[in-house]
Amino acid sequence: MGSNEDDFDLNLDDNEISVERYTCHIIMLMQYSSIRKIDNTMPVLRWKNMATMGIIVTLMIFDLLLLASELINMKNAPNMEILVINIDGIWMHFTGFVKWSYYTWNMTKFMDNYDTLKKCHLLCKKVNKCDSGYTKFQTKMEKARLNCKIFMYSFIGFFCYGALHWMMNPLFIQSYQSGVTNNVTSKIRQLPFHSQIPWNIDHLFGYTCAYIAQLIGEMGSVFGNCSMDVFYVGSLMIACAQLEYLNYSLADEENIEFVNRFSTRNIDLEKKLKECVIYHQAILKYLKSFEELISLPMFIHCIYTTGALCLISFQASIISETTDLASVIKLWSLVEYFLFTCYQCFCLCFCASYIATVGLQVANSAYYSSWELIMHNKHEKFSNIGRSEIRNVKCFMQMIIMRSQQPILLNAGPFYVLSLETFKALLGMAISYSIVLRRVNSIEN
Q1: Are the CB atoms for 125 and 16 separated by under 8 Å?
Q2: What share of the chain is helix, strand, coil (3-state, %, to 5)?
Q3: Most confidently predicted of 265-269, 291-295, 363-367
């Protein structure tokens, strides 16, 4: 009666599809966002890995340099408005660098967690004996793959657009000012971020070098943020598909009819429930190890969301009420920044809430698995074998219902539980802090 997935032969049949088919985008992201060992056996792959590693190192170094220059420039802030703008940039680049560094440093643990997901995939065929059941599983996994693909490209695209738009703002403003004044030499050189530049940026060459350095550092921060978030959301999409298939298999009337029609010592509801218990246990094990991995970066992200939304709201509230192009561009960029930050946090919290809801539905699906049929059939025989099977069915039902009644919680550090309630609380907290910051600034002025 032991429920250990190692008791089964976890090998793919010829007509089965491996988990790599559905997680190809996650694998690609893991390959291109981490520093990997160079494969010396294949020259083409070796040069490809070296180029990838060079790009990653360059992005991370420039992100770190930009962060250091912003920290040094904090002492030169003339007023609270400039200080807030400086802190906003520091917090964004710090979060991106830390999340990417954590992702790269713990890549071995992430790969081990991915191997646990493979075991869940291999166990899926055993919980539903019907061909239509496995077809249903393929449909759910294919849908999860497409959703993951759409999310990855749209998420990275939105944030790259936001970063590039923010970087282009100084150029737009300078072009507008030079056109209004008709004096190119009198315009002030502005950089996207307030940082300490060790060379003169009044000349075009110096300004171009500083601008490119900030651009590379900003893209490193964006890619660091996106790589961790896309991995998080994509992994949860696959796990949700696994849980949805478990719910379907437990309450699948066609599978129950199939089991009853060919009820033997090897194929019956008792075996089905046992395999569902093992499958459910494997999914929970995967989610537990996944939660331990992402707890720290998600904790940093929750703090970043609160601070970023607070500082963005404050900056938007102190913009001068004029219709000049500089104010319009700045307000537009802040609105985009605010919406992208909310969207980023909402996606993380929504996935955590959804998988908790699907996990709780397992108890209802187990109850509707027609377990009472085997209780009735075996009770009529009233033999020792029948009693043993009734006892086993009761045990399996208790195990899967008790486990599923405990919510699947994804903790973000010691203070946060990722959910839509947490998203609402972070948003309200940020607005409250922004109001307090605005009052303090009004008193000082």
Answers
A1: yes
A2: 80, 0, 20
A3: 291-295
